[in-house]
Amino acid sequence: MYLIKANDGLSSECISCYRDVARARDEEIETLITADLQQCAIDDDRLFAYLVPYVFQKLDVEAGASASVFNVVCSHIDARQIMQLIGEIVRENVTLFRKDSFAQIVAASLDWPTTAQWAFWHLVHAEGIPGEWLIQLLPKLKSSQHAEAAANVLLMLKRADRDPNMNMLRALFSRTPSAEDTFTIDCIKILIEDPSTCKRVSDNVGNLLKKQMAAGDLHMGGGTKGASKKSPQKLSMEQVLAHLEQFTQLCLMKEKKSAEQIFSNATVLEAFSEAEKNDKVAPLRSKFAQLFAVVNILRDESRDKEQSSRTLRGNRGSSASTSVSKANRHKDEDKDEDHVTKKKARRVITVGSSSSSSSEDSE
């Protein structure tokens, strides 16, 4: 591998020799890359650091899709080498990850030692991987067992441009509700920090609840009759309500008031109004009575604010019209006073003129 890199500038076909070696040994090229990098890391860490960027430049398809290659790299790379590799990423010389294989590599990394996961997530953040690449993995993450990955997913969502589409919300709500696992709650809280995304999240939550009621997907484990046990169960309304109730318990009455905005959203309020009228949802209303009570309180507060704002606008309008009418009256009074003053002035002028003419006649 070193000789191929050293002579790479002489021929564009040098890397094909490496593939020929793998073929001659009847090995997958990913297996050969892994073995060679492992040996380099043991024999000469400088040679290892020298070859890693080249591997991802010239064998990007094979290396970028191989969990074993990433395992070797992240298990042996040190802080200085991470900085150098991140520099190659920033300068657009190297691309490590591929969308079609990223989730599988993350799933494999869950069993790596903490130090290897630490290095792996540094590289993930360096490439600015979007959260949507992890959607299929979100339901499988358990924050108690996969703390390193769960923490870094939260950082990904917090740092990246948040685009909370319905697929991401479905994946988050599909996680098993648990009082000890707040990962779903934390993700939703991050997604609604921006006011513009808060409305999109709220609309999606309301529409999801409406669709579940319309389709009859109400209870956990209540899949279609005859469905295979291995087939994934549909996301139920019970799961969504369980997460939302935990969300109200942990996130309401905070400084930013972003959690209250979800339950003041028109689409969410419509969904809960439909749920209150739907007889089939009665068991869920009883189970999540606290959640429905919170929604009703926030609905009443929203109405009170709206009515008070209308009253305030009305008072402002009436006071403005009153001010205008008063101003008009003052103008009319001023005009009358000016008219009277002018009349008096004309009289004085007339009297003065007549008296002066009388004196001239007498003379």
UniProtKB/TrEMBL annotation:
Alphabetized PANTHER family for the sequence: INTEGRATOR COMPLEX SUBUNIT 3
This protein's name: Ints3-like C-terminal domain-containing protein
Gene Ontology cellular-component terms listed: cytoplasm
Biased composition (Polar residues): 309-326
Biased composition (Basic and acidic residues): 330-340
Gene: Acey_s0077.g1087
Pfam families cross-referenced by the UniProt entry: HEAT_Ints3_C
Region annotation Disordered: where it falls in the sequence: 302-363
Low complexity bias: start-end ranges: 353-363
Organism per entry: Ancylostoma ceylanicum
InterPro entries (alphabetical): HEAT_Ints3_C, INTS3
Residue span, Ints3-like C-terminal domain: 2-294
